[in-house]
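Quick start: load a record and inspect it. Here is Cobalamin biosynthesis protein CbiG:
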Amino acid sequence: MAPAPDLAVIAVTGAGARLAAGISAELGGSLHLSGSMATEYDATPYDSLADQFARLMDGSKRGIVAVMAQGIVTRMIAPHLQSKYQDPAVVTCDEVGRFAISTVSGHEGGANQLAHAVASITGATPVITTATEANRCHVLGIGCRRGTSKGAILHAIRSGCEQAGITPVRLRLVASAWVKKDELGLIAAVEELGLYLRFLPRSAYENPLYNFTAYDGPMRHLGIPGVAEPSALLAAVDPRLLLPRTVIDSVTIAIAQEGLIHA
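Running the structure step on this input writes:
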């Protein structure tokens, strides 16, 4: 998803404005707020939410992140929808950052990818309902040394999937820790495989509800028990470990399988 001026982030409440400002700053998109909030956050002001959505949906934006109720977003964008090949990616996020919902143009417009990007910033759960992703029930967690090459990461992912008896196309997403957001080799490898990448916040790994196996390296350097296994388990739904933590050169991976009722 391209940064400003292709991306707009819009909110309607004070709590939403705070979250929207953080998303806008991280992704580089323009921020749109009403009244005194626009002045407070140095945002583009609007008076009418409906009119502002009409402007944002006119083709000038490739992506819109709306921090408000899904029902509001649905009503605002419905009159302006044309086709999945023309509409901008729209992602809806509740004002406390619990969910990031791919709302419109999941594949063609990139809303699925944008939802994962927002989730990586806010700690939200990305909500993806497109059939291709819905029918994939494996999540790969990954850690690597700083500066690991794209080639090494691709080799590790493919090798790990082979050991687990699956192919990379079966992966719903790849998950890693917040500290890997700028790991270029990881980003490039996941992009080449056509997968989604989600970065989890530190707080997820520190949750006392989980009893993750602790490894010396992550504990010493990051203060968390691990990266690969926790990432796979935290990013999956009702998971079980299909491939426990496996070291492949400078990369560690683990694969979780989701225990969904209808999968």
